Amino acid sequence: MSDRELIDRIERASGLDGKANPGAALRRFADRAQEEGLLDVAYAMADSPLGELLVAATDRGVVRVAYIDEHVGREEVLEDLARRVSPRVLEAPARLDDARRQLDDYFGGRRAEFDLPVDLSLVAPFTDRVLTRTAAIPPGQVLTYGEVAAEIGHARAARAVGNALGSNPIPIVVPCHRVVRSGGGLGGYTGGTHRKEHLLRLERGDAALR
Amino acid sequence: MALPPFQTFLDRHAAELMRFLVALTGPDEAEDCFQETCLAALRAYPSLPPDSNLRAWAFTIARHKAIDASRARGRRPFPVAEAPEHGVSDASDERDAWAPLRALPAKQCAAVFLRVAAELPHREVAHVLDCSEEAARRSAHEGLKRLREEMT
Question: If you write DSSP's letter for every residue of chain A in order, what string do you get?
Answer without folding.
Answer: --HHHHHHHHHHTTT--S----HHHHHHHHHHHHHTT--SEEEEEE--TT-EEEEEEETTEEEEEEEESSSS-HHHHHHHHHHHT-S-EEE-GGGGHHHHHHHHHHHTTS-SS----B--TTS-HHHHHHHHHHHTSPTT--EEHHHHHHHTT-TT-HHHHHHHHHT-SSTTTS-GGGEE-TTS-----TT-HHHHHHHHHHHTT-GGG-
